[in-house]
From TrEMBL:
Signal peptide: none annotated. Residues 343-367 are annotated as: Disordered. It comes from the Bacteria. This is Effector binding domain-containing protein. InterPro entries: GyrI-like (IPR029442), Reg_factor_effector_dom_sf (IPR011256), START-like_dom_sf (IPR023393). Residues 227-337 form the GyrI-like small molecule binding domain. Transmembrane segments: none annotated. Residues 358-367 have a biased composition (Polar residues). SUPFAM superfamilies: Bet v1-like (SSF55961), Probable bacterial effector-binding domain (SSF55136). It comes from Flavobacterium agri.
Length: 367
């Protein structure tokens, strides 16, 4: 029995020693990690800026299958936020400052432990230098975990380094893996839809589209409205000389829906239209090349764009369907003018017994 008492005493002393050791470890930390990511600065900034992409590169999110993210209407830019729950606890993060293609400042809280995060993006030879600075304070139990992994700064630093490596790998593959195909002449079916319209610089259009699409989808969820098809972009104007475009982010609906007076969301509709269809498989940043392919196809086929009908981009598979940009699918429809055929001379025919009418489907490929 005396031996058991000694063993028990040694265990107690060991626990006290460990507790004292852990308690004396620094609870505050500041970690700076950097890496050259082999992608353009605007692409890297835009990707990090949207919390919906963090599951693709943040090390702990990729490694923890139990982590489930929740996204509000705004997930990028100032005011963007996200929250999550996992087997290790729950947390939230929000962006408080965002300077386009330059820097971000965010605040995060995980299991009651606050931290501040800053990002800096700089053009360098070979890509973009990303500098990620994190500082904060952790609780006792987090310090216990860090001691087992070589110390707090070593543990968190390794996670940040792995996250930046994931970011580089993800962007190099996901953004640069794409294809464009011309699908020829089709008839794009008409649609009723709710829309949100904005005048934007062409350079900022992709970013604004992501923000507006997120808000539209949140509006549908909040008001329990069912989308009657895939979301799409409707271009009202595209002024390359002044670098401006006016477009609407649209969600199709089955029947007409009237919104409240003063709402920035309104109802619209368009009829079926004869179009040249081009499909972009991959990240939306390759849209200008897809547009050029469509323009070249129209010129080569000696067709004529219809100036009275707008270009439509259907987001057949987007970030809501898959987190991998290489798997996104965008169908682009360029309206063309239907050339009227000259009237044929009248021909006198002998009366014949009428036959049942047949439906004609010539040239119809409803997409």
């Amino acid at each position: 029995m005396r031996i058991l008492k000694y063993i028990f005493l040694l265990i107690v002393l060991a626990l006290v020693g460990v507790t004292v050791f852990v308690a004396t470890q620094k609870g505050n930390y500041e970690i700076v990690s950097s890496r050259v990511v082999k992608s353009p600065r605007s692409v890297v900034y835009g990707y990090v800026n949207d919390f919906r992409n963090w599951e693709n590169f943040i090390a702990w999110a990729k490694d923890d299958a139990s982590a489930k993210f929740t996204f509000p209407a705004v997930t990028s830019g100032k005011g963007g936020s996200a929250s999550w729950k996992s087997g290790d606890g729950e947390g939230k993060i929000a962006t408080y400052f965002a300077k386009d293609n330059d820097s971000l400042f965010q605040k995060m809280e995980f299991n009651g432990s606050p931290s501040e995060i800053s990002w800096k993006f700089e053009d360098v030879v070979g890509g973009t230098k990303v500098t990620w600075k994190t500082k904060g304070k952790v609780n006792f139990w987090y310090k216990v975990q860090s001691v087992a992994k070589g110390g707090l700064e070593r543990m968190l630093g390794a996670m940040n380094e792995q996250s930046l490596a994931n970011l580089d790998k993800t962007l190099v593959y996901e953004v640069n893996t794409y294809s464009i195909s011309e699908n020829g002449t089709v008839y794009k079916s008409g649609s009723k839809f709710l829309k949100k319209t904005i005048l934007s610089t062409i350079a900022n259009a992709p970013k604004n589209m992501r923000i507006m699409l997120s808000k539209m989808q949140f509006f549908f969820r909040k008001n329990d409205i069912s989308a009657y098809g895939k979301p799409f972009i409707l271009y009202h104007s595209y002024d390359t000389a002044n670098g401006l475009t006016r477009f609407s982010v649209c969600m199709p609906v089955k029947d007409e829906i009237r919104t409240a007076p003063g709402s920035d969301i309104s109802f619209g509709e368009f009829d079926a239209m004869k179009s040249i269809k081009v499909t972009l498989n991959g990240d939306y940043s390759h849209r200008p090349e897809a547009w050029q392919r469509a323009s070249d196809y129209i010129s080569k086929a000696k067709l004529e764009r219809d100036p009275n009908i707008r270009v439509i981009e259907v987001l057949n598979k987007n970030i809501e369907d898959t987190k991998s940009p290489s798997k996104w699918v965008t169908h682009i429809y360029f309206p063309i003018r239907s050339i009227a055929q000259p009237p044929k001379p009248a021909v006198t025919r002998q009366p014949v017994e009428p036959k049942p009418a047949e439906n004609s489907t010539d040239e119809f490929s409803i997409q």
